[in-house]
Amino acid sequence: MNTSHLIIPDTNMFENEIIIHQKWAGASWMSSVSGVMVKFSEELGPADFQTYPSNVLLLINEDDYVAESRTYKTKLAKFYNSVINCEGLKGTVICVKSSDLTDTGFIALQTFCIIDLGLQIIPIRNIASQLPQLLVQFSISNNRHRKVNPFKFGIDTNESNSSTHGYPDPKLIETLSTIYGLSDLKARLLLEKFGSIYEIARLSVSTMAPVIGTSAARFVFNFFHQKRN
């Protein structure tokens, strides 16, 4: 039976262990993965990595979503179907975005991940320097208390998100500012006022306009509410 489309997670993995798809064995960035145990597997299907206990991650390169390519949809569809068909798995997409020239494609990718599929997405600029750190962080963070994930629309009800409790997470600002027509400053103002991307996605133009202006408010509203193919 062909299991290339199936994720068969390792249920016996240890804390601080990372399982990496066999195809990455020998990759130059592997030498930078330190402080954790590494094991290779051919049973991750469309996923690239698994961290303890049941987090699976897919890596999307810029070549997958540039103007001439839409291969990311096929990859994401296979990954999504594998995740939802395996009870207990949590799927996350790691996206390489090293050039501003791919902004349009990245927005489409981000929309497809978050809005259409409900998958978390984390952008990185460089595989060699950032991917190893991210994988190690995923492994380590599972042993700590639960935190807000800035890359999905969920809210941690145990933590206040209002502007009276500190500056918004820079990663939240970075994610929100990928919306066309929304600057970093206006993204920060929205987060300071409304607290989370989840809340912002539910706002009307008239509610956002006093904070960031009517034009930017329309860009944000259209991003979250336009129909997807």
Features:
single chain, 229 residues, alpha/beta, Rossmann fold, 2 domains, 38% helix, Zgc:162267 [Danio rerio], PND, FAAP24, RuvA_2-like
Could you describe the 3D structure shown?
Residues 17-137 form the Fanconi anemia core complex-associated protein 24 pseudonuclease domain. InterPro entries: FAAP24, PND, RuvA_2-like. It comes from Lepeophtheirus salmonis (Salmon louse). One of its GO terms (molecular function) is chromatin binding. It is elongated, with a radius of gyration of 18 Å. A six-stranded mixed sheet has the order 2-1-3-4-5-6, sandwiched between helices. The chain has helices spanning 71-84, 103-117, 127-141, 170-176, 184-194, 197-200, 205-212, 214-225, and strands at 17-21, 37-41, 49-51, 55-60, 90-96, 120-124. It is 38% helix and 14% strand. The protein is of the alpha/beta class. The longest helix is centred in the middle third of the chain and has 15 residues, at 103-117. The model is unreliable at 144-165 (pLDDT under 50).
Helix and strand arrangement:
Layout: E1 17-21, E2 37-41, E3 49-51, E4 55-60, H1 71-84, E5 90-96, H2 103-117, E6 120-124, H3 127-141, H4 170-176, H5 184-194, H6 197-200, H7 205-212, H8 214-225
Parallel strand pairs: 1-2, 4-5, 5-6
Antiparallel strand pairs: 1-3, 3-4
Helix pairs in contact: 1-2, 4-5, 7-8
Structural domain tally:
2
Stretches where pLDDT falls below 50 for ≥5 residues?
Answer: 144-165
CATH topology group of the largest domain: Rossmann fold
Query: So how many helices?
Result: 8
General form: elongated
Give the spatial strand order of the biggest sheet. 2-1-3-4-5-6
- Tally of extended strands? 6
> Nearest-angstrom radius of gyration?
18 Å
Note the main sheet.
6 strands, mixed
Q: Termini distance? A: 32 Å
What's the pLDDT, averaged over the residues? 80
Structural class, please?
A: alpha/beta
User: Would you list the SSEs in sequence order as H and E?
Assistant: EEEEHEHEHHHHHH
Q: Tell me the helix content.
A: 25-40%
CATH architecture of the largest domain: 3-Layer(aba) Sandwich
The level 1 CATH classification of the largest domain is Alpha Beta
